[in-house]
Write a structure and sequence with these properties.
Blueprint (H helix, E strand, L loop, with lengths): L1 H16 L4 H17 L3 H11 L5 H8 L3 H44 L2
Helix pairs in contact: 2-5, 3-5, 4-5
């Protein structure tokens, strides 16, 4: 719980430093993730949703869909790989914005003391 709070606090502070409300940042991230999930192939998307959103075990998903557990494992792996690829660019952009904003803020703070 402590780590979760610390992570949330860091994200909130980072967004605030950029003049972005936490809600805006969360909405943007949510929209990007949702869009990325929608681009998954149909079976892959279905299995991913059952695993991550319905919190079903691989064996449950396999039985429900008439698949082997191995097929479910492969589809989850495929979904995660595709999502990482789709979201990697967005994460790099967010990191660059945060870094540039931090450096700019740090630069401005240094010059206020001169």
């Amino acid at each position: 719980m402590k780590d979760t709070y610390a992570t949330h606090y860091r994200h909130t502070a980072a967004y605030a430093d950029q003049g972005i409300s936490t809600e805006q940042g969360n909405d943007d991230l949510y929209n990007r993730v949702t869009s990325a999930i929608e681009t998954l192939p149909p079976q892959c998307r279905l299995i991913f949703r059952k695993s991550r959103f319905e919190e079903k075990k691989y064996a449950e998903i396999a039985q429900e869909l008439g698949l082997s557990v191995k097929t479910v494992e492969v589809q989850i792996g495929k979904a995660l790989k595709l999502l990482r690829e789709k979201l990697a660019t967005a994460m790099v952009i967010v990191l660059l914005i945060l870094i540039v904003g931090w450096q700019l803020g740090h630069f401005i703070n240094l010059h206020t003391y001169w």
